[in-house]
């Protein structure tokens, strides 16, 4: 029997570190935590990450760089909008001063939507709903901890179960 490798509908457990190539800053890592567990081919990972890990076996280590097109995409202007400052009155009344650079969460019909405050003007606050990593090139160092076939239930649910997975 051949060794299982990362492919569509397998469960992969990986340790990873993501860095920004220009500064070397770590933006995310599983270091000191349980490995990341994901069901391959079900949109749980950014596209380039899944593509680069295809065919990897347990114990294998891979390093790769993803341009924005293969990561979180480029920032979209239509996701940047101005809101009347009055809509933020409840936050300011609680003693929090809203400043550019803050991340806040809007409650929408689709659920919570995090956004970055990019400008605070006299009457408006500019909100950027783009992903924080949109427009960035990302470097990853990944070690494959385990690869196993997914169960029918995991495939039908669209996520991994068990250790490091979503649960039952």
Topology diagram in text:
Blueprint: E1 10-19, E2 26-29, E3 36-39, H1 47-53, E4 61-66, E5 80-84, H2 89-93, E6 103-108, E7 111-120, E8 124-128, E9 138-149, H3 152-157
Antiparallel strand pairs: 1-2, 1-3, 1-9, 4-9, 5-8, 6-7, 7-8
Structural account:
The chain folds into two domains: 10-72 and 133-157, Chitinase A, domain 3 (Roll); 77-128, Thrombin, subunit H. 11% of the residues lie in helices and 37% in strands. The protein has three helices and nine strands; from the N terminus they run βββαββαββββα. It has helices at residues 47-53, 89-93, 152-157, and strands at 10-19, 26-29, 36-39, 61-66, 80-84, 103-108, 111-120, 124-128, 138-149. The longest helix has 7 residues, at 47-53. The model has no long low-confidence stretch (mean pLDDT 92). It catalyses: [protein]-peptidylproline (omega=180) = [protein]-peptidylproline (omega=0). It comes from uncultured archaeon MedDCM-OCT-S04-C14. It is an enzyme of class 5 (isomerase). Residues 9-99 form the PPIase FKBP-type domain.
Could you tell me the CATH topology label of the largest domain.
Answer: Chitinase A, domain 3
Number of helices: 3
- H/E order of the elements? EEEHEEHEEEEH
Number of separate strands: 9
- What is the average per-residue confidence, as pLDDT, rounded to a whole number? 92
The percent range for helix content is 10-25%
**Global shape:** elongated
The biggest beta sheet is recorded as: 5 strands, antiparallel
The rounded Rg comes to 20 Å
Q: Per DSSP, what share of the residues sits in E-state strands of 2 or more residues?
A: 35-45%
Instruction: Please indicate the count of domains.
Output: 2
Distance from N terminus to C terminus (CA atoms, Å) equals: 29 Å
Overall structural class, as computed from helix and strand content, comes to mainly beta
- In the CATH classification, which architecture of the largest domain applies? Roll
- Uncertain runs are none
- The CATH first-level class of the largest domain comes to Alpha Beta
